[in-house]
Structure formats: C-alpha cells, structure tokens
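User: Here's a structure from my thesis project, written as structure tokens. My advisor, Dr. K., wants to see whether a designed sequence matches the one we expressed. Can you design one independently, without my sequence as a hint?
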C-alpha cells in the first residue's frame, strides 16, 4: 500500500485532493494528512473520511522539524504532496513574516525531513519516492492585458509578500533537485475554485455575501484578470504529475478560463438567480446593486494566464471543467452545505478538532 504524506490537507485544495485520491484509488492507498489547523484548515472538509482505516490526521506545523521527522520515522512515506502554505495576498500584505515562516522555512523543513528519510548512503534515493511541491502562477508576476501567457520558462517576478514567499520555496525545491538530485516536481497552478474554499477568497465571498444581501466588494476597476481552474481538475493534474512527471521538472497547471474579476461577480449573480428556487426569499436579496468598488489592493497584479502546453504534451492533462459548468457545481455545493458555510463564517469550525480529536 503506497503511503502519501499530504501537508495542508485540511485546507481547500488539499482536502479536495484527498477526496479525489480516495475516489480514484480507494483502499489501495494510505493518506496521512498533516495540518496545523490555522484559520483556513477545517477538518469538517474531511468528515466523511475521518474514520477510514487508510486515513490518518496528525495536527502538526510544518515548521516543527521534530514533529515532521517523527512522522517520517513512524511511517514509510512513499510520496509527499506539499500544499501547506499561507496563501491569501491581503493577509501577506498585513503580516508578511508569517508567510516567510510557513512558506519558506516550512518547505525547507519538509525537504530536509524527506531527504533524510529517503537518501541512501551513496547519495541516491530510494526507488519510487517523490516530493511534489504545489505552487502558484503568482510567482511569475503580472502579464499585459493584451496577450501572452506564463510558461515554465517565464522568469520569476513576484510582486506581493505571498508570491515572493512562494517563489522562495520554489527555488528551495529547485536547489534540492540540482544539488542532491532530490526526486521532486513543482506545479504552478492558476486560481482554484470549488467546494470547501474559505470565504475570504473571491468566489465563495461573493456567493455568501450575495445570498445575504451584503455588499460585494470589487478591487479597483474590477478589470484584473485571473485564469480560473476547477479544483478537481487541479487534483487530477497533481496526481498525473506525481505518476508521470519527469523528475526535476516544473509543470504549469492552468484552466484556460480567463475572466475579469467584475465578470466573475456578474456571472455569480446571474447564476444564483437562475439556480435559486422561486420560493427562496434570498432571490430578493441577490442584486447587482450590491457591487461596491473599493480601493485597489497594493501591488495588485493586472493579469495572470497559464499556458498548460507542457503538461498536456508530456502527460496528457488538460482542464475538463469550463467556468460556466464549474461555477454551477460550486454554487450547488454551497447550497447543499449551508451549515459548512455558517460554521466557517462564525468560527465554529475551529471547535471541530477539539470535539473530534482532543480525547483520542
């Protein structure tokens, strides 16, 4: 049974990846989920699998080298999928230091512990071991509005403390690949959306605010462009890179769904009005009049767009979910999980660990 160590598995993308892997591989794999359960880590994301024999949750911080070393010592880890990171640009502008600590030092700890566990006396590495570092398109900086794409060869030009910390972690992984021939891949993805996304991010924020008749904040002129990737498509891409990616290579995973932020807001409002039942009073609250333009974010990159040519050519991955379909699936999920959103927005989700694990 192959054992995966997933860092940040209680977060948005990590929890979706774990669900995807169990749907695909079932009982033939084991997953150890390591998460510090900071503000975006939510064990309610994984309630349906928490009692499976082939799933283990360990509360630990990736910057705690002793804790991570113990996990490697106690388990025969075949694969590491490293999601754990501080990831919200606005938070990085307010408190850059925690982003450096988690994203840079945490990645260094993970690399050191994996290397110590997997390296042979002759400097080679045990067969079948691999480390996949999940990064972002934001490390590449900003594109012109009238064209061009990010490629794996695009020079790094991060503009926010968040993207600078992720760029630093990418360079650490590249250094271990070059220096030690460490068995690793890097993936750089575009903006994800889908189930379990923490509602400080654009799409769940707009969905939740619109349903409650609250203002819908839009930075600047609303014309900043992002490339949107449905989270299940991303999970599939990560799995395919893990299995088929050439060691040492970077693969960009993009959605080919470029949209201006204001377009996203309009699409969400229109889709909510289409999907809400006629007798649902929230339909009276959802309105484009709620759109409120606010002061632009500091250093706000204008446009991101990924060319996933390499992963398509080498591995055969391409996005399957176009935005119109993905946003309907996302809204349908939020309709079916209103208790999840209520627990997240109230902060009650943070009690779940104590209730479920404190006495175990």
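Assistant: Designed independently from the structure alone:
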């Amino acid at each position: 049974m192959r054992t995966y160590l997933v860092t940040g598995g209680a977060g948005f993308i990590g929890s979706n990846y774990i669900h995807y892997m169990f749907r695909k591989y079932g009982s033939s794999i084991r997953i150890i989920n390591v998460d510090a359960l900071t503000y975006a880590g939510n064990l309610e994301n994984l309630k349906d699998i928490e009692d499976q024999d082939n799933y283990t949750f360990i509360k630990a911080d990736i910057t705690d080298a002793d804790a991570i070393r113990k996990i490697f010592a106690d388990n025969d880890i075949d694969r590491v999928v490293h999601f754990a990171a501080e990831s919200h640009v606005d938070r990085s502008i307010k408190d850059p230091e925690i982003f450096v600590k988690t994203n840079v030092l945490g990645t260094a700890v993970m690399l050191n512990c994996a290397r110590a566990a997997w390296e042979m006396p002759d400097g080679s590495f045990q067969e079948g071991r691999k480390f996949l570092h999940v990064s972002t398109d934001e490390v590449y900086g900003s594109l012109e509005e009238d064209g061009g794409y990010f490629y794996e060869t695009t020079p790094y030009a991060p503009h926010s403390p968040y993207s600078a910390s992720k760029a630093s972690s990418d360079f650490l992984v590249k250094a271990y690949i070059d220096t030690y021939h460490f068995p690793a891949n890097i993936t750089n993805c575009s903006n994800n959306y889908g189930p379990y996304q923490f509602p400080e991010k654009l799409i769940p924020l707009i969905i939740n605010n619109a349903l409650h008749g609250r203002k819908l904040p839009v930075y600047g002129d609303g014309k900043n462009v992002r490339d949107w990737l449905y989270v299940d498509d991303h999970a599939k891409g990560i799995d395919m890179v893990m299995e088929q990616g050439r060691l040492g290579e970077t693969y960009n995973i993009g959605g080919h769904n470029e949209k201006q932020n204001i377009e996203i807001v309009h699409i969400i409002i229109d889709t909510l009005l289409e999907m809400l039942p006629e007798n649902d009073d929230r339909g009276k609250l959802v309105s484009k009049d709620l759109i409120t333009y606010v002061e632009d974010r500091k250093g706000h990159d204008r446009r991101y767009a990924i060319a996933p040519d390499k992963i398509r050519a080498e591995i055969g991955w391409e996005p399957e979910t176009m935005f119109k379909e993905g946003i309907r699936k996302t809204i349908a999920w939020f309709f079916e999980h209103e208790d999840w959103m209520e627990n997240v927005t109230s902060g009650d989700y943070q009690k779940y660990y104590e209730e479920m694990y404190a006495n175990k």
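When you compare it with your expressed construct, this may help: The chain has a mean pLDDT of 93.
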